[in-house]
Amino acid sequence: MSSTALEVPLVEPTIVVVPWHDEVVDRIGYDPRSSYVETFWLNVLGPTTTWIVRRIATGLDEYPGGFELDLGQTAAAMGLTFTPGAANPFARSVNRCVMFGAAQPVTGGLAVRRRLPPVSARQLARMPEYLRDAHQAWHRSGPDDHDVDRARILGRAMLHAGDPGEAIERQLLGLGIAPAVAVDVTDELLGRRLAPT
User: Fold this and answer.
1) pLDDT of residue 4
2) What parts of the chain have a pLDDT lower than 70?
3) Angle at 135 between CA 58 and CA 167, to 5 degrees
4) Which end of the chain is more exposed for a tag (fewer CB within 10 A), N or C?
């Protein structure tokens, strides 16, 4: 499927939804129904857009290859109405999915992420202070194996994409990786880790 325009024109009563496969985000991201998404992505996407992504994730669990989403029915379930076009709250919420990278238009429909990436440093900077503190505490609670694995996956992807080695630590930090993990993983990937004494 090839990408089309950045905005999804919702002129038909239904739209075909397919999974957006992203090897990196699928491995390190968060389920749209997770506490992480509810705590941090809700501030970025807004409530209606968050619920749209959650409902689609549930639909993709049932129909992994994709399905036809009834726009009127989905809007009504959220207390909204659907009218064709982009000038209504429901259509704007669907387009926020695209604007913030939770979905992308494809020929004949919409590809939606089954897992959302960690919020970016830029998104985090725009959040209220208590959410920034909560996000920092989320990562300070100690790196678990998932955090380290996620950092390794991201770091390897950056190296594979040709990013300079000296930029990896900074980029991992920008993606919300805890500083100690970013340093350790960068050293490991670049062969700078000292042998234990």
Assistant:
1) 41
2) 1-6, 86, 141-144, 192-197
3) 100
4) C
CB 170 within 8 A of CB 183: no
Chain-centroid distance of CA 17 in Å reads 16
Q: Mapped to the 3 state alphabet, what secondary structure does the chain carry?
A: CCECCCCCCCCCCEEEEEEECCHHHHHHCECCCCHHHHHHHHHHHCHHHHHHHHHHHHHHHHCCCCEEEEHHHHHHHCCCCCCCCCCCHHHHHHHHHHHCCCEEEECCEEEEECCECCCCHHHHHCCCHHHHHHHHHHHHCCCCHHHHHHHHHHHHHHHHCCCCHHHHHHHHHHCCCCHHHHHHHHHHHCCCCCCCC
pTM above 0.85, yes or no: no
* CA contacts within 13 A on the Cβ side of 14: 7
Give the residue from 27, 30, 63, 65 showing the smallest Cα distance to 45. 30
